[in-house]
Design brief:
Blueprint lengths: L15 E2 L5 E7 L3 H12 L4 E5 L12 E2 L1 H9 L10 E3 L1 E6 L2 E6 L10 E3 L2 H15 L2 E4 L1 E8 L14 E8 L5 E11 L6 H6 L2 E2 L5 E10 L7 E5 L12 E7 L4 E9 L3 H4 L3 H11 L16 E6 L4 E2 L6 E3 L15 H52 L2 H11 L3 H11 L10 H15 L5
Helix pairs in contact: 1-3, 1-7, 2-7, 7-10, 9-10
The structure holds flavin-adenine dinucleotide.
Length: 445
Amino acid sequence: MHATTTSEPAFGSSGTAPTDGHVHDVLVVGGGPAGSSCAYWLAEAGWDVALVEKKVFPRVKTCGDGLTPRSVRQIQDMGLEGTLVGAHRYTGLRAHAFGKVLDLPWPEHPSFPSHGYVITRHDLDAQVNERAAKAGATVWQGTEAIEPILDDVATRQPGAPLASCIGAVVKDKATGQTREVRARYVVVADGANSRFGRALGTARNRSQPMGMALRGYYTSPGHDQPFIESHLDIRDGEGNVVPGYGWIFPLGDGRVNVGVGLLSTDQRWKGVNTTTLMQHFVAWAPKEWELSDDTCLGPATGGRLPMGLAVGPRVGATTLVVGDAAGTINPFNGEGIAYGYETGRLAAASLGEALAGDGLDALLRYETRLEDAYGLYYKVARAFIRVISRPELMRICVGTGMYSETLMTWVLRIMANLVRPDETGPAEAAYRALSALARLAPESV
Ligand SMILES: Cc1cc2nc3c(=O)[nH]c(=O)nc-3n(C[C@H](O)[C@H](O)[C@H](O)COP(=O)(O)OP(=O)(O)OC[C@H]3O[C@@H](n4cnc5c(N)ncnc54)[C@H](O)[C@@H]3O)c2cc1C
């Protein structure tokens, strides 16, 4: 049960070597924000946790690189903020829409700081993963979990609850050799595509919204701006406003991260080409950023954003699913790093209780914890998405909001999930009214 930094067991000469006989308390599949946070909190609590990550850190990961105060809180709690290298600190959001511009500083909040960071995932994920290893987690990089080891083959059917997983066949990417890693519990943290999760029976609820986003890097004189910038009225080739936003996030090192995100809520948006959308956005962005082919540092890359807890089941008899693998991205703003850290931490809490003797009851509490933390909020977000997917309503909402800084400050607070439970201010009142409506509203689009 104690965290150890075990030496790697020897591989067999060919094929799948038998396990070395050691059974870890927990095996975590994936070393992104969700997996590394889960491994950190388990190791911190003294459990024997092993993490496999198929890439070798530092590795490039397609992302907007924006950390909100929610992410910063988790970075602080892992004891990393003071030593974080390569991060540009910023203080708020500059919102552009329909010709108006508003500067919206992050609000004061008792549980979250009033600043964020922009930092490449190349730098960030390596530091968080290293933190988990320093806390005592056994980390195998360049090691892919290629197949789950199942306890009960009968549960491995589409639509069935998550199969019981007690380890993984892992492959050393450098040598091609495979072996088994066994554990009492397994955490699925393998990101948006989640092949490991799918092999255990997870599926995305296709009636719920999915995001798609594309990003690229540019050199820019605005690289050290104190605000991140969002454009809430991005348009397709015909000039139609689409449900999504464009962003320019300053990295503080001569570069900015530029991207577009789109919500696929409705057939209408499924045909929109994000590459074309990105080209339009770059051409249309304020000239002072100097975005052009000349300042572009390489082709844009993209990915999917499973959101609103749209992926399940998230609990099996020996398995929990965290981060993008569980669809935990905030549908309001496409933020997923904070929710990766938070769900990794919630899973670690439940696993600690399970290992201490509560077994399955403790694992089931993970689902309750998710529901308590995000259930109603994500329901409100899904209702919001249904509204902004209709261009005429989107124009009214965003266009009207942009006339009032006060209103947009509340909206920012709600969208970034920074509403204060201890306050009865207008943002909190607005959120309470929205959540009362969302509770009653049917979920169908
Ligand atoms: C274009 C774009 C822009 C975004 N911008 C932002 C932003 O600015 N701010 C924000 O908060 N969020 C943003 N997001 C969302 C954010 O990137 C994700 O929500 C976040 O990375 C989720 O973390 P995770 O740990 O769940 O998954 P990941 O970060 O995807 O980590 C999963 C890890 O698992 C590893 N892995 C996968 N399969 C295996 C396997 N079988 N064996 C071993 N290892 C495996 C992968 O290599 C990877 O390192 C953006 C997403 C996209 C696509």
